[in-house]
Structures are given as structure tokens and as C-alpha cells.
Amino acid sequence: MTKSKRTALWIFFLLVACVQLFPLVWLTDFSLVESSEFFSEKVLVWPDSIKWDNYINAWVDGNFLHYLWNSVFVSFVTIVLTVIVSISMAYAFTRMNWKWRPFFYAVILLGIMIPIHATLLPNFSIFKSLGLTNSYWGLILPYTSVSVPFSTFILTGFMRSIPVEIEESGVMDGASIYRIVFQLILPLTMPAVVTVAVTTFLNCWNEFIMAYTFISDERFKTLPFSVMNFAGQYSSDYGSQFAVMVLTSIPAIIIYAMFNEKITKGVMAGAVKG
Amino acid sequence: MHKVLNDRLAIFLFVFPGLAFFVLTFVAPIILSGYYSFTETLAPGTPVKMVGFSNFTEILFHDERFWLSLRNALLLGLGFVVIQHPICILFAIMLDRIGGKAEKWFRTIFFIPCVISVVVISRMWLSVLDPTFGIANKVLASIGLSDLQHAWLGDASTALGSLLSILIWSGFGWGLLFYYAGVKGIPADMYEAARLDGASGFKLHWRITVPLLSPVITVQITLAVITALKQMETVFLTTNGGPGDSTQFLAVYLYNQAFSASNYGYANAISILFILVCLIITFVLNKLTKNKNLDF
């Protein structure tokens, strides 16, 4: 590719990126100003004095730390459960010999296609009768179930590319099957595990409708609720509303910035081969 | 080795937890939903009256909203396939061509909307498209197109299109990433061979890249249509199906039937049909595209 062509492409990408990120820039910009500025003609404003009050409202009245802790806790437990469950299933699907293997693999993959929204209503009844609504498990169980099919799919694809010889040497050394999976295979599948962990994190962090249906107790609500609650409470204070949205987005963006190479590598290794 | 890999107990322990999760959140609810779909029930826990197939005949033959929801989902899916995916493929190829630091930087930037919560996305776009203080109308005014100013989500003629734009914006990164992974998987000597034959530029990519991407494209198209069918949160949080059902989707419709209109039995019948529609469409698309990757 010639230099001029590359420069043209560079400028084009830069323009697209500006347009694409513009709503987010606008959101951040207006989270720093008085709500009255919203009705000015200006597209973006340069704040004379930054209105930190918006962020103080969001942090204190929005009960941000409380929701943040719930989101972190629920996401963390879900990730650990998803990885353990998916890696052991993926191992049974790729390496072990059993008759019903293709059948159960197909069944689990169906989980990617079945809309969770169609299971919301009956799940609400089931969780209610099991006493799971308004508890952390009422979020962790469905989140794990929803994450497992896709994670198993990615891990199965990745595991197929690992040579069997490694396990053979493990067997020679007299390691049990459980040690082989969690001490030999797990480190080797790390790139795919990171992908699975990060996508599961993003899904849990951002999930709304199940939390909205299964949780009504303040104690267990997660971050997306803080945005909703706040919108009701501060319905005309747009600046503070925007501040809550910015605060909610920051952790996910940081995690993404840290792991973005891994997500790309994982998708390249897993999803393409299928 | 053979003995270790035939260990029945180990297989059971490896597969059982995953299946238990699957049964708890997919199989059991669907069975329960099946039961409720034959009843007239106001809400979970209230008296149940068996009514046979009447919910289903009502939905299939008399419920215009059900068909409207399905039509909207298919239009949205068509929008994804015709607008979003060609853009993703084009950008994936260009990203691969630009190379160096720019490749990495832009790949990272383009993905950012994908990590933002659906609640934030929805509320943000509600503000962007707001008729009084929204930035969309201000931008139009500032470039002299005030005539186009509009209550984008409040007008039945533009609501579905606005929704499509929001979803394209938020889903662009994932599509791009999958196609980019596909482009990276194409061996360089394929291009060399085509160049020797005299192909270059657009023609080169049309004849080499796109056909070699076809396995990725088929999976992605199936997933796009399923995503359109499953669409719920963004609609629920922006238009909630309105105005006048112009953005009605199955998931939103059944949710409101169950929790706002107190038609729990009827809503469950919609759920059952919803699942069937998803599975049938997946099956048909797999047959049409001869896709092996998601074949059941």
C-alpha cells in the first residue's frame, strides 16, 4: 500500500472514530456542566467552571459504591463459576470418549440460540418459589447459565488445537484426570479463558433485564439500576444523570483497555475455527 | 491414556454441572412456560384455568401485534445484514490493510461502544435524539438542515430506523472483530497468487477476501438475524414498543403482556412461539447457507 493511500485511510478512520465516539464525548462533556446548558444551541460546551456537584450527586445520592460492589461481586462469582463449568465441559466434549457426546454438545449450543427473554417469565416463577429472587444467587445462577454455552463453544474450539501428547505425558506421570484438566489444560487454554472471562464480565456488568425482573430489593441491585433509579430521582437534573452514566461506564472501559488484545486473540483463536 | 479418557465418573462430573445450569435456566422454564401457555392466568401464583389451545389460536390468527413484532424483527435483521455487515467487512479489510500501530489503535477504538452498558446506551441515545435538547437536532441545525429536525424516536415513521441506527452503532465493534479475525486468517499467498493473475484493489478483495470469508459471513448472518429476533433491552428502555407498536418486538410484547397487562398465560404462549421461531429460523438459515458451524 502506498504512503498516500495509507494516509487517506488514516484520515478516514479518524473521521469515522470521531463520529462514532461523538455521543460518548457529548455525554462526558455535558456531565460536567449545569443542566441549563442543555438547552443552549451549542453542540459541545467548554465549562467555565467544572460542575463537580454532578459527580458528587451521582456518587453519594446515586449510592454508587453500593451498586459497584454488587456488580463486582456478582460478576466475579459468575466468571469463576463459568470458567470452571465450561472448561470441564469443553474437555469432556473434545477429549473424552462417550456415546452421547455429540448430542449433549448440540444441546448446550442450543443455549446460544434460545432467547433468554422467553424464559424470563417462567424463571421468575421458579426463582420465586425457590426463594432465589432478591438474592445474589438470583443473578449469579442465570448469568452463569447464559454464559456457559458461548464459553463452552469458544473453549472447545481452542482445546481442539492443543496437541494430545501433553496429556499423554501427564498420564505417564500418573496424574489424575482432574489434575490433567486443571493443572495441565487450564494453563494452556489461558488465552481462550481470558476471552471467556472478559466477555462474561462485560455481559454481567451490563446485564439489565434479568436483574430488573428478579431483583427488587435495594440490597442486591447492580450498577445498571443506579442509572435507572437516578433517572427517576433526578429526572430534570440531566447533568447528574449523565455523571452516573459516565461513572458506570468507566470500570468496563478500564477492563477493556487492559484486556483488549486478549479479546481479539481469543476471538481469532476460537470463533473463527468454530 | 485410553482408560483415563473413558472414566465414566469423570465424564459425569465434568458434564453434570453445566447440564444442571442448562436445565435450571432453559429446560425447566420452557416446560413451565409450556404448561402456562395452555392456561388463562393473570399473574404467577394466581388461580389457573386450563383453556387448551385458545391462546395459540388467538395469537396466530387474531393478534396483529404478534405478527407486527415478528415483521419488525425481520426488518431489523435485514437492516443488520444489508447495512451493518457490509460495513463491518469493509472496515475489517481496511484495518488489515492499514497495518502497524494504526491497525491496533483503531481496532481498539471502534470496539469501545460494545463495552458500554445497554442502560447507558439507551438513556444516552434517548438524550441524543431528544426533540428539545438532543444533540442530533442541534447538529442538523448547525449544518443548515433544520428542516430535518425531528422527534426521532417519537415518530412512528422514523422510530424503527432510529432504533436500527442505535443498534448498528452499539454492535458495530463485535461484527468488525469477527470479520477482522476472519481476514487475518486468510494466508498471504492467496493474495500473491491473485496478484499474479492481475487482480488488484477492490477486485482482489471481491474475488479473494469475500469468498474466503464466507464461513464467517454465514455464521455472522445467522447470529445477526437471531440478535434481531432477541432484541429487547434497547427497545424496552427507549420506546417500549411505541409509538403505536411501530417498534414492537416479541420479547418486549410478552414482557408487557405478563407484567403490565396481567396476561401471564397468554404471555407464556408468546414465549413458546418465540422460542420456536428462533429455532426454526436458525435451522432454515443453516440449511440455506449450508453452514456447518452451528449445525444441530
TrEMBL record, chain A:
Repressor listed as a keyword: no
GO biological process terms, semicolon-separated: transmembrane transport
Alphabetically ordered keywords of this record: Cell membrane, Membrane, Transmembrane, Transmembrane helix, Transport
Main localization (coarse): membrane
Chain segments annotated as transmembrane: 67-91, 103-124, 136-159, 180-202, 238-259
Membrane topology: Multi-pass membrane protein
CC terms in the record's Gene Ontology section: plasma membrane
Compartments, as annotated in UniProt: Cell membrane
UniProt keyword annotation of Cytoplasm present: no
Domain ABC transmembrane type-1: 68-259
Pfam family, one: BPD_transp_1
Family affiliation: Belongs to the binding-protein-dependent transport system permease family.
Protein's recorded name: Raffinose/stachyose/melibiose transport system permease protein
Annotated source species: Paenibacillus phyllosphaerae
From TrEMBL, chain B:
InterPro entries: MetI-like, MetI-like_sf, UgpAE/MalFG_permease
Keyword terms of this UniProt record: Cell membrane, Membrane, Transmembrane, Transmembrane helix, Transport
CDD domains according to UniProt: TM_PBP2
Compartmental location: Cell membrane
Source superkingdom: Bacteria
GO BP annotations, alphabetical order: transmembrane transport
Record domain ABC transmembrane type-1: where: 70-285
Protein name, entry field: Raffinose/stachyose/melibiose transport system permease protein
Species, as recorded: Paenibacillus phyllosphaerae
